[in-house]
Amino acid sequence: MEKVLFTIKYEILPEKRNEYFDVIRELKSLIKADGLESYSVFEVKGKANNFEEVYTFVNKQSYEDFDDDPNERVDLLMNKLSDMIKQQSTQYTTLFEI
Questions:
Q1: pLDDT score for 1
Q2: Which has the closest alpha carbon to 32: 57, 53, 10?
Q3: Is the pTM higher than 0.85?
Q4: What ranges do the domains of the chain cover?
Q5: Rounded to whole angstroms, what are the CA distances from 67 to 13, 19, 25, 63, 90?
Q6: Adjacent-strand bridge partners of 67
Q7: Are 21 and 65 in contact (CB under 8 A)?
Q8: Cα distance between residue 39 and residue 27, in whole Å
Q9: CA separation (Å) from 82 to 21, 33, 78, 88?
Q10: Whether 56 contacts 5, CB under 8 Å
Q11: Fold annotation for 4-96
Q12: Which of 21, 55, 91, 97 is most buried by its number of CB atoms within 10 A?
């Protein structure tokens, strides 16, 4: 079975940087699902306040099922996170292993 990488790139508002780190730390402890191998967040080298979230799924079905089991706390944190992101800066990528 082929793995799936799902990434989200975005830039946050500079004044929200400390709050962003608090939200991400909590998200990293909460985001778990069957078939999700890892969830990591990286800051882009040389681009202050630009980040990339990387989700690694064991297969396509795990990727497709990921949002089927909602978690209230995760949803709340994701909403907070969306308020910290600069408009028009978000890019999504889904990669299927060959």
A1: 66
A2: 57
A3: yes
A4: 4-96
A5: 26, 25, 20, 8, 19
A6: none
A7: no
A8: 9
A9: 13, 21, 6, 11
A10: yes
A11: Alpha-Beta Plaits (3.30.70)
A12: 55
Which pLDDT value is given to residue 68? 76
Tens-binned pLDDT, residue by residue, of the chain (98 aa)? 699 999 999 999 999 999 999 999 999 988 888 889 999 999 999 999 999 999 999 999 999 998 777 778 888 999 999 999 999 999 999 999 99
**CB contact at 8 A, 94 and 4:** yes
| Helix, strand, coil percentages in the chain from 3-state DSSP, rounded to 5 | 40, 35, 30
Residue 36 tokens, joined? 């999700």
